[in-house]
């Protein structure tokens, strides 16, 4: 849609109310036993299994993709009666896209590429747009772009909208997730306004963080962004996805996020086309909890090496 500056200016965020509400979220719902195992399997299906390290190699990406195809040991899945469980996607830097696409051949698992000068987004603008095209050409079906934080910090909503719209266009058929890097946006009001502008400009998903900021996904930020998604859907009928990313490493945190999505947005946001976790180590803890559920014992973390 066109940029609606009146709507953007009208957006406010009551920080103390959001923080108070967010503090109650971990205690609001609790799922136990078989229900918890089912929710944890659901969480696995929503993970963008991620490796974003300077020392990534093809070998590491191949192992990560093997884990994405078979996220939990076969005998545990058999005991749970689960078949066909995979992660939602594999998320890598551009240079690793081709290796990931090869390793995932024969599956429906998409490759997501972080792009546009990730994580700071400060490389030349033309190169940032070109990087998107390169990753799409290499086979990425999802592109995680980073926005220019300075457009938010200076209130230049037109510049943010134009940038997002051009990045959206450069993605073509690929899905685009807009990373706001909320830990660098200063206020929850900025987070809300940036969320809205990115949605107006065509983002398929809004995503909290790169995982490289000092503060990454948090519950107050999530509540703020989720309510923006809800307002946007109420006013336009358009459903936008949500991806909290960075620092989500424990199964119990994943359960809090899932119940938050169900409470605030409903069942459609528990599906991979509208919700993902960006996480590099969450899967390992979930697998460990599932093993405990089935055997009564915790295994060592090194038995769940990748993810
Ligand atoms: O987008 C995904 C994040 O970079 C992953 O962050 P994490 O390593 O803290 O799980």
From TrEMBL:
<keyword id="KW-0456">Lyase</keyword>
<comment type="similarity">
    <text>Belongs to the DeoC/FbaB aldolase family. DeoC type 2 subfamily.</text>
</comment>
<comment type="pathway">
    <text>Carbohydrate degradation; 2-deoxy-D-ribose 1-phosphate degradation; D-glyceraldehyde 3-phosphate and acetaldehyde from 2-deoxy-alpha-D-ribose 1-phosphate: step 2/2.</text>
</comment>
<dbReference type="GO" id="GO:0004139">
    <property type="term" value="F:deoxyribose-phosphate aldolase activity"/>
</dbReference>
<dbReference type="GO" id="GO:0016052">
    <property type="term" value="P:carbohydrate catabolic process"/>
</dbReference>
<protein>
    <recommendedName>
        <fullName>Deoxyribose-phosphate aldolase</fullName>
        <ecNumber>4.1.2.4</ecNumber>
    </recommendedName>
</protein>
<dbReference type="GO" id="GO:0009264">
    <property type="term" value="P:deoxyribonucleotide catabolic process"/>
</dbReference>
<dbReference type="GO" id="GO:0005737">
    <property type="term" value="C:cytoplasm"/>
</dbReference>
<keyword id="KW-0704">Schiff base</keyword>
<dbReference type="Pfam" id="PF01791">
    <property type="entry name" value="DeoC"/>
</dbReference>
<dbReference type="InterPro" id="IPR011343">
    <property type="entry name" value="DeoC"/>
</dbReference>
<dbReference type="InterPro" id="IPR013785">
    <property type="entry name" value="Aldolase_TIM"/>
</dbReference>
<dbReference type="InterPro" id="IPR002915">
    <property type="entry name" value="DeoC/FbaB/LacD_aldolase"/>
</dbReference>
